[in-house]
Amino acid sequence: MELEQALRALANNKILADADLAGADLSGRDLSGCTLRNINLAGANLNGASLQGSTLEQVNLQGARLCGVQAAQARFDALDLRATQWLNALLLQAVFSNCRLDDAQFGGAQLERCDMNKVSLHGADFSAANLTRWDPSGLDLRSVKLDGAVLQRAFLKDCVLSGQRFGGCDLSMANFNGAQLQQADFSNVVLDRSSFIGAQLQQVNFAGVRGKYVALMRAQLQQANLSGAWFEMADASHADFSQTQAQAVQWRSSMLRKTRWSKASLKNAHWIDCDLAHADFSDADCTQADLRGSSIHRMTQNNTRWDGSNFDGVRPTDAALERAERWQPNPAIAR
Questions:
Q1: Half-sphere exposure of 250 toward its Cβ, with a 13 Å CA cutoff?
Q2: How far is C-alpha 55 from the geometric centre of its chain's CA atoms?
Q3: SS3 of 70, please?
Q4: Are strands 35-40 and 15-20 parallel, antiparallel or unpaired?
Q5: How big is the CA angle at 141 (ends 215 and 147), to the nearest 5 degrees?
């Protein structure tokens, strides 16, 4: 089918199927609201085209250029999109399902509320892209570039992000619950209401992080680097900080119940007005630490170094609370 014939079919019916338009120049064309099915558009030029509200099914767009394309609410199903170029594209609420997006370039693209389901993203580049409320949950994103991306409220639950770098990213309210983040680099990033519940954060780099209302419950942070990090109103209950390098880390008004800090390096660390009940600091170096106003109810301190530390206003083990915690119902009464 010739290009002009295909364009007439689209103009008349808004549907085009079973056509070979490889390498076609569709730049700037209005294809909004169209359905494209089983089309070969490999290497095509769609720069600046409009695909708003369109549906593309089983279309080969490998190597196509889609820079500046307007594709809000478009649906891409079972497409070959390898090495496509989407620089500065508008993809608000677009849906990608069962697509191959390996080596795709999304630099500067607008992908707010974009849903990516069962897609491959090996080597894809989202540098400086707006990924607000992006949903790639459960995907392997280890080789994806996210430098400077906006990830506000992004749903990254259960994603594989080991070794990923988040330099310059906006992670406000991003959801990393259950994600694999071993050796990821968050150094000097601001974490505003970000959530890492149950995340695997072994050897993560949190040096210089500024965190407020961060959720780290049950997170695994063994051998992490938290040097100079600052957290306020955070909840890290049941988190494991064993063997962390956390010199001068600061926690303020935070919930740290049943946390584990064994063999951690915590020189000049601050826990101000924190709840450290049942925390375990066995074999940790807490030289010159500051625990002013914190609860250390039933805190474990086996071989812990506290040289020069400040315990002003600390609330030690509460005998009445300890009895209450050990209370067991009377079996005779229970029957």
A1: 10
A2: 28
A3: strand
A4: parallel
A5: 80
Query: Minimal CA–CA distance to 279: which of 246, 263, 301?
Result: 301
Q: What share of the chain is helix, strand, coil (3-state, %, to 5)?
A: 5, 25, 65
Strands 95-97 and 55-57: unpaired
Longest CA–CA span in the chain (Å) reads 88
243-257 pLDDT per residue, tens: 999 999 999 999 999
CA distance 20 to 38: 9
Q: Using CA atoms, how far apart are residues 58 and 107, in angstroms rounded to an integer?
A: 25
Report CA-CA distances (Å) from 290 to 251, 267, 276.
Answer: 10, 10, 13
User: Nearest Cα to 146, choosing from 122, 164, 171?
Assistant: 164
Q: How far apart are CA 110 and CA 128, in angstroms?
A: 9
Burial code of 124-160, b = ≥16 C-beta within 10 A, e = fewer?
bbbbbbbbbbbbbbbbebeebbbebbbbbbbbbbbbb
pLDDT digits (tens, 9 = 90+) for 172-192: 999 999 999 999 999 999 999
Per-residue pLDDT tens for 120-149? 999 999 999 999 999 999 999 999 999 999
Choose among 335, 333, 296: nearest CA to 314: 296
3-state secondary structure of 309: coil
Terminal Cα-to-Cα distance of the chain (whole angstroms):
83
Bridge partners, residue 285, by sequence: 265, 305
CATH for 1-94 is: 2.160.20.80
Q: Helical H runs in the chain?
A: 3-13, 319-325, 331-334
Contact 133, 111 (CB under 8 A): no
